[in-house]
Amino acid sequence: MKLFIAGHAGMAGGALVRRYQRENGVELLLRTRRELDLADQTAVESFFQAEKPDAAIIAAGKVGGIHANNTYPAEFIHENLAIATNCIHSAWKAGVKRLLFLGSSCIYPKLAPQPISEDCLLSSALEPTNEAYAIAKIAGLKMAEYYRKQYGVVYHSVMPTNLYGPGDNYHPENSHVMPALIRRFHEAKVAGLPEVTAWGTGKPLREFLHVDDLADACAFLMALEAPPNLVNVGYGRDVSIRDLTELVASIVGYQGKILWDSSMPDGTRRKFLDSSRITQLGWKPRIELSEGIAHAYQCFLEEESSGRLRGA
């Protein structure tokens, strides 16, 4: 099988490369952004026509935390819409029969009932701070669904919960909570700081999945003859931000005090995916949270020492 992984240099894409490198009979087709701009329609169509992959996984996209999404909404909607439409349409035109599109749990409504099932999609308003990104991802997954419906190709989507692991983005302002905590406590430990301030009350609940588990779930779904159009992939348990913060500090080895600034916003009270659809199909995550964070921290140290740390 000739498999194109779009976005292989990112965290999810890198995990997919590691996963499929272990499989016999898979020829990976990879392009850097410099080699192929996925937002360039002509370039993407030419690539698919020339290479004719058997399958594609679209893991590319412009991603970031609340600050980045809220500050650059035009960039987030434009780039992610372009990537989705160019890749899906070009794949179909080139005769690609199998395609998996990676979305995000932020596609679901802000006030969706917990845990969030796939049926909650488009049932009410989105979280305003990442609406631009979410709309682009919804367009991509719906495009995959409708191409499957009209043309008979097996194009389907996966919605991962919050991801972490090797290749994460550790930018001091635009990163997600897990890499932000890892970097903050590591730097506080190195600097010998007596205390670290965390935002909010620590009460919100979040779910975190190691990116290698996501890659395994994607390979599982790609191997199914008739997968669902849309599948959530989560860890199956959530954790309070306070407990997560203390766990990361412990794993990193920071021994100072953690102060909570309750004047800062907490965000959504809970965000937890219902992953029963994929577990009923026979898949479940294997990497425990503490084990995964320890692995992520070791990768952070290796990436930092080698100058490969994203967002440094």
Write structural notes for this entry.
The protein has 312 residues and is an alpha/beta fold. It has helices at residues 11-20, 41-51, 66-71, 73-93, 131-151, 177-191, 211-222, 241-252, 276-281, 289-305; strands spanning 2-6, 27-29, 55-58, 98-102, 154-160, 162-164, 195-199, 205-206, 208-210, 230-233, 239-240, 257-261, 270-271. α2 (41-51) runs parallel beside α4 (73-93) and α8 packs across α10 (289-305). It is globular, with a radius of gyration of 19 Å. 43% of the residues are buried.
**What's the tally of helices?**
10
Order of helices and strands: EHEHEHHEHEEHEEEHEEHEEHH
Query: What is the CATH superfamily label?
Result: NAD(P)-binding Rossmann-like Domain
Low-confidence stretches: none
Main beta sheet: strand number and arrangement?
Answer: 6 strands, parallel
Sheet with the most strands: spatial strand order: 2-1-3-4-5-10
Decide which structural class fits the backbone. alpha/beta
CATH architecture: 3-Layer(aba) Sandwich
Mean of the pLDDT scores? 95
Q: Roughly how much helix do the residues carry, as a percent range?
A: 40-55%
